[in-house]
Amino acid sequence: MADLRELYQSVILDHNRSPRNFRDITGSSRWAEGNNPLCGDRLRVSVSLAGDVIEDVAFRGSGCAISKASASLMTEAVKGKTVAEASTMFDRFHEMVTGRLAPEDAKPALGKLALFAGVSEFPVRVKCASLCWHALKAALEADQEVVSTE
Ligand code: ZN
User: Fold this and answer.
1) CATH number of the structural domain spanning residue 53
2) Distance from residue 71's CA to the centre of ligand 1 (Å)
3) Fewest CB within a 10 Å sphere: which of 15, 23, 81, 113?
4) Model-level pTM?
5) What is the tally of structural domains in the chain?
6) What is the pLDDT of residues 50-86, one digit of tens each?
């Protein structure tokens, strides 16, 4: 478990320092904003779809290391996936961070994202880690919405 914790920390640090897909998508895209007032995290997730496939996904915003790293890893994970696949990943991720799914069972669907299993021990952090997913879901379901974890 110590190794997993170290890996988790180094991945969070890395993605917080140099977040992937930290930009806007130009052209036609859907987006949604996520607010987590408890921590002060604010993210805007943009997606561009090619039919049913997430062709591009990016985020902007400010927040704690966990919210940023989670968004960064999420954009890497869902790019190229179908909307249905991304939706399944959201479900697995949510079950895992709320402690209802063991990380080893989440891993086939989530890959690297299974590292976030540790946040299930910290209820406040669950909202930080899942904020980007709520915003992604809102962006996929409708245009220009603001979602809140509250
Ligand atoms: Zn946070």
Assistant:
1) 3.90.1010.10
2) 11
3) 23
4) 0.91
5) 1
6) 999 999 999 999 999 999 999 999 999 999 999 999 9
